Amino acid sequence: MTILTTLIGTVAFALIAPVVGCLLAGLDRIISARMQGRVGPPLLQPYYDVRKLFEKESVSVNSVERTYVGCALLFAWVAGGVFFTGGNLLMCVFIITLSSLFFIMAAYSTRSPYAEVGAARETLQVMAYEPMVLLLAVGFYLAAGTFDVGDVLALDAPVITTIWLVFLGLLFILTIKLRKSPFDLSMSHHAHQEIVRGMTTEMSGPTLGLVEIMHWCENVLFLGWIGMFFVWGNPLSIILAVAVVLAVYFLEIWIDNNFARVKWQLMLKSAWAVALAAGGVNIAFLAFL
Description:
By secondary structure, the protein is mainly alpha-helical. About 70% of the residues lie in helices and about 0% in strands.
């Protein structure tokens, strides 16, 4: 039954997450335009862009590039299905990391120097945020007594009351996970950051369309992690969680438009420092005190 539930959840996530992610991406563009004094595109502009990509001729530098991207998208769907059906959070973390590794392999497979630089930067980003993500899973287990996300609905209080330092650490690395400035080192959605686009330099047409859909699904999953902190036995807590998620997403957009890209050394050092100071201290307090 658990496997069947996860399968149904994966299919539902694959259908719903791209829609929600597309709307969030459109909202991101509109808010960013307002912050920069522009009118901005319509809300559905990301959908129009991806539809145009799928209408283009399928051109690839090799036969495995799209396979790797397709695997990355598939594992992103599975990770979302596991999480939103109340499954194991640690398993969700491992699966979404596997998705990132397939995306890195897709960039390396093109043998383009620009894509390889982007892939190397993406690897550094994974090294930067992964310790905090693992501490998130451990902190959740200590707070809820289980790795199963669905069990938060039986708690008397939200998990943020006991692992609020872990939440702050997650907020910090969320900027990396959402590929927002100042930590958008591997690929940027802003033209002013660099001449070429890092990992997706050699990707075009339907392959690039799959990458955009994967990015939408990842955003929904990561924002779901944020909402998890504010859900407990009270059904009305879901409304609170949605409100917090929207506020956090607005904060990320504001950060994206007000901070320039940093060097990878600063990203790595700061992410590990936050993981140690926030996640490590919080988990040590719960485990030993």
